[in-house]
From TrEMBL:
GO terms for molecular function: formylglycine-generating oxidase activity. Signal peptide: none annotated. The gene is gldK. This is Gliding motility lipoprotein GldK. Residues 40-104, 229-447 form the Sulfatase-modifying factor enzyme-like domain. Keywords: Lipoprotein. InterPro entries: CTDL_fold, Glid_motil-assoc_lipo_GldK, Sulfatase_Mod_Factor_Kinase, SUMF_dom, SUMF_sf. The keyword Lipoprotein applies.
Amino acid sequence: MKKFIALTATLSFLISCGSSDRGELVGVRGKKWRPEKPYGMALVPGGAYIMGKADDDLANVQDAPAKTVTVRSFYMDETEITNSEYRQFVQWVKDSTIRTRLAILADEQGQKPGAGGIGEFAFKDQESTDKQSAYDKYMYENYYSIGTDDDMYAGRKLNHKAKLITDPQKYPDEYYVEVMDSMYLPESESFNGLRTIDVSKLVFRYSWMDIQAAAKDKSTKNTRAKRSKYMRNEQVEVYPDTTVWIKDFAYSYNEPMHNDYFWHDAYGEYPVVGVTWQKAKAFCAWRTLNKNTYQKAKKRQQINSFRLPTEAEWEFAARGGLASATFPWGGPYTKNDRGCFLANFKPNRGDYAADGALYTVEAKSYDPNDHNLYNMSGNVAEWTDSSYDASSYEYVSTMNPNVPDQSNKRKVIRGGSWKDVAYFLQVGTRDWEYADSARSYIGFRTVQDYMGTQNTGTNQ
């Protein structure tokens, strides 16, 4: 025993002498980290502001009494998420779905890389063992090959290096034809000579942890059991509901918007609509995954998550640093000194085009507010992460207030839209919609937490 203690002391002495800390408490030194502004986002410096109605509550809703709150710094998309940006998400899901189906069929047929055909899309663990790292071998033997009760292929890695073939005349074998055919609607359901993708097949799966509920759980001291108890698995059909252009307006001709708005390049820079709250959340999870996959490949530190803004964050950003403003540009008028409207909304009864636009406009239209954020009022209303409660301003915290009630399916939307009157464009006006509802006038934008606390603004 004495020999063991002596050896331990000697090793400790040698380790201390061989290190550069000179035996001092210097902390664990990692790579030097610098904040990186995400592409297409603006920094909103945190600070305090008066949340709620700045003017008289003309509608007498009485759900937004004035209250001073403080929010932390965050990045926010300069524009609403556009059709083009959301199509990148849809294309990624489509690509992954096809690769998954090809890999499963290759697995069932015993096809492997090197023989050509569908085998080139087999799961990565089907590569010869001499090409696998020790890590991949271990993970396959202990995790990937096991699967789950719900999905026997859970955890297995797709081969993203093999290029998908889109020309039907160049499909490599009958198995590839079978997979591609399964992704489209039957010939009997096609028209105008075009085969249409079956959008119900475009499903994004992701997991998240309900930290709020887990942190408040006092029922067990077993941390691991608690953690698994609050893991949530989501499966979301990602394609927007294009029928909203017809369903939202009875006795109205809006078929052109239904047919072309989402997929045609003419509307690429217009805000995406027909997206439920769940689809907006799925987009945030995908955007985080997509960026962190790149970060990992470049051996860089991972970023924190993209997410929907809380209601307080949205209003703070919309005000653009203007204290007690009615609109993002100040107010109280919706026209500038030249008589031009400052947002896309419905100025007059039935006259949707009085502001120069019948439906939506491009996401980067009109002048931005002082945080360089476009269309915080008008164009499309925007989902927030907060649940709606008419009395929430009475009980929420004055620091980063939010109502993350998972059981409340009424979610706050803000900013008003192209079909709303000016009242809904006011930065203090609250509105809501059910989380599973899609509308032709609701879109969203995302935020990301700023890492650190030094970047704060003054009182607003």
